[in-house]
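Thread title: Can someone regenerate the structure for this chain?

I was given the following input by a collaborator and told the matching structure tokens would be attached. They weren't. Posting the sequence so someone can regenerate them.
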Amino acid sequence: MEGAVTPPGARGTARQATTNPHPPTKPNGPLRVAVVGGGPGGLYAAALLKRLQPNRHITVWERNTPHDTFGFGVVLSDETLGGIEHADPEVYSALQSEFVRWDDIDIVHRTTRHTSQGHGFAALGRRRLLEILHHRCRSLGVELRFREEAPDPAHLARAHDLVIAADGVHSTTRTAFADVFRPHITAHRCRYIWLAADFPFDAFRFEIAETEHGVMQLHGYPFSADASTVIVEMREEVWRAAGFDELDETESVERCAKIFADALGGRPLRSNNSAWTTFRTVVNERWSHGNVVLLGDAAHTAHFSIGSGTKLAVEDALALAACLSEQPTLTDALEAYEAERRPVVASTQRAARASLEWFEDIALHLNQPPRQFAFNLLTRSRRVTHDNLRLRDPHFTEAVERGFGCPPGTPPMFTPFRLRGLTLRNRVVVSPMDMYSAADGLPGDFHLVHLGARALGGAGLVMTEMVCVSPEGRITPGCAGLWSGRQAEAWRRITDFVHTRAPGTAIGVQLGHSGRKGSTRLMWEGMDEPLDEGNWPLVAPSPLPYKPGSQTPRELSRAQLTDLREQFTAAAVRAARAGFDLLELHCAHGYLLSSFLSPLTNRRTDAYGGSLEKRLRFPLEVFDAVRAVWPEDRPMTVRISATDWVEGGTTAEDAVAIARAFADHGADAIDVSTGQVVADEEPEFGRSYQTPFADRVRNEARVPVIAVGAISSWDDVNSLILAGRTDLCALARPHLYDPHWTLHAAAEQGYEGPGVVWPPQYRAGSRPPRTGRTDAPKPRLTLSDLPLTEGA
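Best answer:
Regenerated them for you:
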């Protein structure tokens, strides 16, 4: 569970004023409405629709009794409450009088408790919430049918103008029309049980129990003056090893109370038809079918650890009611409802998935210092960040920074980091970005300006694009190379500029070979599309084209493997002479070395294919050969694709093994990227979406990592580094948008210190320029304050 209540003055974007107290009645609006499911979302939708149009006949079917509820407490945010306040002040007033509020989160790890303040929560009992909504529905004239299964969904659709399916994660309505809604349901790796304790916790409490069977965790929070919700969660294999699969409900409850006796003060737990279950993430390709629409858990689920299930359902109800009021037809209303809610839900589900996966892999983080572990837990979903937490609880955040080693007033991103003989003055890396602007592999003025500008921009390390080891190893005719002395001299011009004009900034070279993804057009002329003319032959571990229409590569022979290894070592020697401070071997994104690693692209049956150990053989041979000629004091890193985003491809476990193998051979850090190995991949895009893979590699393989992938803000960088999920952060698009991204990050945080240095020529720009007067007196009156005269 995260801090749920928005600070005063920062109320969010939940649906508000469109559902005004006396909206105009729409004669063509749905008058006969069926609601399947009497949970908070369905009841609130019924109440809103009846209030908006009193002549509607609305029936709610609920299979259970009015007093049955599963789970105990409900947490709502200020933004959700704001929507309720505008739409139905009576419900809002009733809720306000029931809420238990608190600000603290306690995290107990290895007998050490850390408290973070300033979060703001509001909770009430789920049963009391339902009672309030029952009363409101009855007062408005909604028909509530308890202990009664709803009729067949197709029958309901024929007999009503609108059917709202609010029948939960196991929705029968969704199942009936599965061919239209096309649900995707993902079961996760933990078991959990929803319980209660008859006393109020004084904070939201996370407690970690390391048992002989594995790690278990407690999530607890108060929901009334004398009761708390308690959720106990653990990995499936831990649950089985502990014998919970053989215990009945009473025995499970007693066992949980014993395990978490310290958190409970020795007091018992109680259940309410509680059963161990596995959380399922529900995603639907469509939310409506004719006059049937999904709402709440029937449409989508979000893991309880960020406390969003009831919140999302209530906000769905608000949006649906508003869209039905605003739009001219039912079809338009349902389309508008989905368009409005889908991006909000998708964002919440991404955060919820990050949170649930963090708890699934909680054992990775247990050896962190307790305070850093607490910070990591608080920022697990990436919605609570370093900067946000610094505002909520500056004392806690400063303590975490001190434990990390940040000098006073120094953000984590500006702490130095050492790789072999190279000390980077900050943790920001300009990620390799192909520019497709070389002529015959020769970097020119464009590369000097492009890389030079970003070096002047303050990053600790600036990386070249993938520099190819042979003409045949290029991706496109515009790719840069290091297969000749002339190219090395051109690169020397660039490294000399960086070292002279941006002292303290390191510059690294990424060496690679395109493999089966070569001989294609420049990116802006058709990415991964074959050249119309001037093609060169391709090579790969196996004769598999990248995608339909791509050139089929030749399978590499033993002799060709030797030649390739020598091309890499020759390029590395030239890179050293060119003055690069660091060398990265590109073993990602489906290029040559990457295609040896993935089982999807390596179908060899000799010593270089088959098991992961054999697939690693050639990339490790290349690494060893390059390491042997690369100066001993200069670091080497390796970029890998930690997943192929396709079933049957590289797994997260494989990625750890690959990283560990390179580290054992002398890699100083692993640059953890993902995908681009096969054309039919299905990445799970989102903010910082690749960083969990870096986190896992770092904490399982015990090797420094560089995190990449939609890291866009300095707040993200600080959060990831301070949480111990990465050592360095590589950013690409932000540095295209702003070559001085790191300098501006320092200015925006008020940081001046050795972690970043403004070039003297740019120092006058170290403060943002004024954009206009901001202190003008505000008007005393606006037109909306005055009555309009006739004709106005």
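The first helix runs from residue 40 to 52.
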